[in-house]
Specification:
Length: about 270
């Protein structure tokens, strides 16, 4: 009887051990997700000479969510934003399914991943949705694009504001939010600052193409001031559009150089034609 009881307890223990092991294994893919975006941000800040913690600050403003366990705001790799509504998903598969659902419904203006890269305005950024939601690929593309914007502006805060939107008013608002987060980056344990970031949710996006500028009513400004405001708004919109074009061109040139290098390594001519 005693030996039977021992055998039974051993069997139960084996089952429980297997269950616990399975639960631990199932948790492994999620383990470290709270650092996935931040680790890649740090990596590509070094790779592309981006100021420390700037890319990380952008990721927090773009896809930040509150982590109850660590009591900090973290960028979430499986964030999807469309129609002004940002959602956090528990897995890459769920995030990909949401993007496919949106596309099936005719939605094309969709931001994805750590850095909320827009699939409509960056159609060649990723080879697949799986790649788009890979933290390394998502952050790497964002880092290259930010670097391209810096090359066009020679000013990191301006480049970061343009990263978010080509609409001057949205870029200016975003810059204010981002600078506060970047200033707080050295205080990851500061619950107040992290809660403030988390309360923002994924950064709202509008079409990057600038609308007609919002100006003061004629009764509140002279005709000359009105004209100055119009000229300034159009000039800012032109600068942003030029920066976007230059950043896209830099990305295209990099991809072409990589393609030529791969073909040469394979013993093929540089061009496929």
């Amino acid at each position: 009887m005693e030996s039977g009881r021992v055998a039974l307890l051993a069997a139960v223990w084996a089952v429980l051990t297997a269950v616990w092991a399975g639960s631990a294994a199932a948790a492994l893919p999620a383990a470290g997700l709270e650092r996935a975006c931040a680790e890649q941000a740090a990596r590509y800040e070094q790779t592309y000479g981006i100021p420390a913690r700037l890319l990380d600050a952008i990721s927090k403003v773009e896809s930040g969510r509150w982590d109850d366990d660590r009591r900090v705001t973290v960028a979430w790799p499986w964030t999807v934003t469309a129609r002004g509504n940002g959602k956090y998903f528990p897995s890459k598969a769920a995030a990909i399914a949401e993007v496919r659902r949106l596309k099936a419904a005719g939605v094309t203006n969709i931001d994805v991943g750590c850095m909320q890269v827009n699939l409509q305005y960056h159609p060649d950024a990723f080879a697949s949705l799986d790649e788009a939601f890979d933290p390394a690929s998502n952050v790497a593309y964002a880092a290259r694009f930010l670097k391209g914007l810096y090359g066009a502006t020679n000013h990191w805060p301006t480049a970061a504001s343009y990263y978010h939107s080509q609409t001057p008013s949205l870029a200016a608002e975003y810059r204010q939010r981002l600078m506060k987060v970047w200033a707080d980056e050295g205080h990851d344990g500061d619950e107040d600052s992290n809660t403030r970031v988390a309360s923002l949710g994924p950064a709202p996006r509008a079409s990057p193409w600038p609308p007609r500028p919002a100006l003061s009513p004629p009764g509140e400004a002279t005709r000359a001031e009105w004209g100055t405001q119009i000229a300034a708004a159009h000039e800012e919109a032109r600068r942003i559009a030029d920066a976007y074009r230059q950043a896209h061109l830099a990305e295209y040139q990099l991809r072409r150089a990589q393609m030529i290098a791969r073909r040469r390594a394979a013993g093929l001519p540089p061009s496929g034609y």
